[in-house]
TrEMBL record:
It comes from the Bacteria. GO terms for molecular function: iron-sulfur cluster binding; oxidoreductase activity. This is SoxA: sarcosine oxidase, alpha subunit family. Keywords: Oxidoreductase. It comes from Sporomusa termitida.
Length: 108
C-alpha cells in the first residue's frame, strides 16, 4: 500500500520498528506505535466491524477516537477504538460482529 514518506507541511516523522501482528488469524506487519487502524489500512483492510442491528460494515471515519466506527476486538477485548490504539508486536486483532466479542450478529 501507499504511505506518505514526505509531507509538504508536516515535519519529518519517525516510525517505530516493523512488527508483526495477527488480524483474523492471518499475520500482517505494521510499525510499532502507529494506530492499529493505520496498520490495517496499509495492509488493505477497510472493514473493522459489522453493526449489531443491520450487520453493516464499518471502518475508519473520524480517525480521532470519537465515532466508534473503527472498533474491533484487540487481544480479546471488544470495542477497542483502533484509530487511537497504538500497535504493538504480537497483537491479536479481530473483526468485531455486533457490540461485543460474544455477540456474533451478522457473522457470515
Ligand atoms: S474512526 Fe472514529 S473512533 Fe476511530
Amino acid at each position: 500500500m501507499y504511505r506518505i514518506e514526505n509531507h509538504p507541511i508536516l515535519p519529518e516523522f519517525h516510525r517505530g520498528k516493523r512488527v508483526a501482528f495477527l488480524f483474523d488469524g492471518k499475520e500482517y506487519e505494521g510499525f510499532e506505535g502507529e494506530p492499529i487502524a493505520i496498520a490495517l489500512r496499509d495492509n488493505g483492510v477497510m472493514v473493522h466491524h459489522y453493526t449489531a442491528k443491520r450487520a453493516e460494515p464499518r471502518g475508519i471515519f473520524c480517525a480521532i477516537g470519537r465515532c466508534n466506527d473503527c472498533v474491533m476486538i484487540v487481544d480479546g477485548a471488544p470495542n477497542i477504538r483502533t484509530c487511537v490504539t497504538p500497535l504493538q508486536a504480537g497483537m491479536k486483532v479481530e473483526t468485531q460482529y455486533g457490540t461485543s466479542n460474544e455477540g456474533v450478529t451478522g457473522r457470515q
